[in-house]
């Protein structure tokens, strides 16, 4: 009897040790595979193998925590089932050929810390649900065909360090809610169709190192409060409709207060 109990215990422990991810997570991955022509990826998946063997997928404690399929020839749309990967902490689908809208189901990924969908062909608006991802540190959506306004809900992303939305077709103004992003180090909105004035609230983002707003339709002047950003080393606001001209500074020496003469509306460089 003791031998039988030991055998049963061994079988139970073995079964537990080799348990797979949930059915919902597996189906979400398969939906991504099918909707992006997985059989034509540079590194495809063998769906008959355990998920932890699938290229670019990281499984920890039987949970899918990372997907890294950048530069992998994904063609098609991001399926709504992606929202079932609720334990996902990082997703990088950059440098592919993804099209269609960003699904609102992305807002279900509450554990996500990094979302990178740059260099694709995504269309439509950035969903308001992006504001549900309150643990995000990195949001890179640059070089797509995104339209509409930057949702005010980005103000919920209080842990964000990188917000990169450049080279899209975004319209409207820069939301004042950006003041909540007090950990932000990189703000890049270059090459869009943004209008209105640069919000003075940007001057409260004291961790900011890069401010890139060039090639938009912004008006007025750059607020003097930007001189409070003592960590700023990259300042690019040219090619807008400002009342003054500003020369770009990249990796400038000293703080921005020493580089910008706001009375003259110019930037002092080492060559001046």
Task: Describe the model.
The chain has helices at 2-17, 23-35, 256-259; strands at 57-60, 63-68, 75-77, 90-92, 97-99, 114-116, 138-140, 147-149, 162-164, 169-171, 186-188, 195-197, 210-212, 217-220, 234-236, 241-242, 249-250, 260-261, 266-267. The protein is of the alpha/beta class and 272 residues long. It has a single domain, classed as Leucine-rich repeat, LRR (right-handed beta-alpha superhelix), CATH 3.80.10. The strands form 5 sheets. A 10-stranded mixed sheet has the order 1-2-4-6-7-9-11-13-15-17, with no helix packed on it. A hairpin with a 4-residue loop joins β18 (260-261) and β19. 35% of the residues are buried.
In CATH, what is the class? Alpha Beta
Report the order of strands and helices.
HHEEEEEEEEEEEEEEEEEHEE
Beta-strand percent range? 15-25%
Average pLDDT level: 89
Q: For the report, how would you describe the main beta sheet?
A: 10 strands, mixed
Portion in helices? 10-25%
The N- to C-terminal Cα distance equals 90 Å
């Amino acid at each position: 009897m003791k031998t039988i109990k030991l055998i049963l215990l061994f079988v139970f422990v073995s079964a537990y040790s080799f348990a797979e991810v949930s059915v919902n997570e597996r189906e979400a991955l398969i939906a991504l595979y099918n909707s992006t022509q997985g059989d034509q990826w540079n590194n495809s998946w063998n769906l008959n193998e355990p998920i932890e063997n699938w290229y670019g997928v990281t499984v920890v404690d039987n949970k899918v925590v990372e997907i890294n399929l950048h530069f992998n020839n994904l063609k098609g749309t991001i399926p709504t089932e992606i929202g079932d990967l609720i334990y996902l902490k990082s997703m990088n689908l950059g440098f592919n050929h993804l099209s269609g809208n960003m699904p609102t189901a992305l807002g279900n990924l509450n554990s996500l810390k990094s979302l990178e969908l740059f260099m694709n062909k995504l269309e439509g608006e950035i969903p308001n649900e992006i504001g549900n991802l309150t643990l995000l540190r990195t949001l890179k959506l640059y070089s797509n065909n995104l339209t509409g306004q930057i949702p005010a809900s980005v103000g919920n992303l209080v842990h964000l360090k990188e917000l990169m939305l450049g080279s899209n077709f975004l319209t409207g103004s820069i939301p004042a809610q950006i003041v909540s992003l007090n950990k932000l180090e990189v703000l890049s909105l270059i090459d869009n169709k943004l209008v209105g004035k640069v919000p003075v609230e940007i001057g409260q983002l004291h961790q900011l190192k890069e401010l890139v707003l060039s090639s938009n339709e912004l008006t007025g002047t750059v607020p003097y409060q930007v001189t409070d950003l003592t960590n700023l080393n990259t300042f690019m606001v040219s090619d807008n409709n400002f009342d003054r001209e500003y020369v770009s500074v990249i990796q400038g020496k000293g703080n921005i207060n020493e580089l910008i003469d706001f009375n003259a509306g110019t930037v002092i460089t080492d060559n001046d």
